[in-house]
From TrEMBL:
It is a multi-pass membrane protein. Its main location: membrane. CDD domains: TM_PBP1_transp_TpRbsC_like. This is ABC transporter permease. The keyword Cytoplasm does not apply. The chain crosses the membrane at residues 34-54, 61-81, 146-163, 194-213, 219-238, 245-265, 271-290. Keywords: Cell membrane, Membrane, Transmembrane, Transmembrane helix. It comes from the Bacteria. It is found in: Cell membrane.
Amino acid sequence: MSAVLEEVLAGGVRLAAPLLLASAGELVSERAGVLNLSVEAMMLTGAFAGAAGAMTSGSALVGVGCALVAGLLVAALQALLSVTLRADQIVTGITANALALGATTYGARLLFADGAAGSLPGFGPAAIPLLSRIPLLGPALFDQTPLGYLAFALAIGLAFGLGRRFSAGLTIDAVGEDAVIADRFGLPVRRVRHAAILLTGLTAGLAGADLALAEVHTFSDNITGGIGYLAVVAVIAGRWRPWPTMLACVFFGIAQSLPFAPPALGLHVPAALLVTLPYVIALLAVSGLVGRSLAPSALTVPFAR
């Protein structure tokens, strides 16, 4: 029983890494007033570009660089549409996701045999001596891939950076609460929102690279499978606060790893029920049944001077 629990925790924390990366940038963007439903597109294109770069160059680091560029390009398009042109953020996000799914599926047919990449060069677990041997928590926290460690470090760093003791956090919150008043006080609203969206592109692209190069070491059609949407839900479930958002990501990661537990325990639970569990939990989280949350006042509201 303890071995199974240890495996579930370790698998859950590992699956939480791409969620942590994607939700870190999404949290900054939403607190600045921009809802990036296109985070799924950023992750998917990042995974595809990372796989293509790693396969053609033979280097996982080159793949990560390609993933960052791909995520940044999608984010730049999102910033142009939602901030500069003031298009509807929900519509542009959904459209970007559909385009990314079609483009990566077509690209996979051209670059990879049967639409899926073979075993790619990637990142394996890098256990921290002694700490990784701590019962239960050691394998979960201290036996991660380099990108997994980076995910937690980035999430923790942003949690401190968004604190009200730092001017950056105060500026982002001011723009997200009332962009018009923030502009009157001299804050560069459009610049802040552009930067927040581009940050989301970088973290989501890195999340895609983690998925393709550290988790499965391959690329297949729709490899993200809605993880980008879960990242958005994690921000909402975390009530737009860093630490609760991190906990929501870990919770969703553990929920994703639960389907592997019943067979190991000899239990017969419908696999389909366990696979849908993270999304059922996500639905409960955004419905307000697990606690009321208050979004930034200017979220999804275009800014016009």
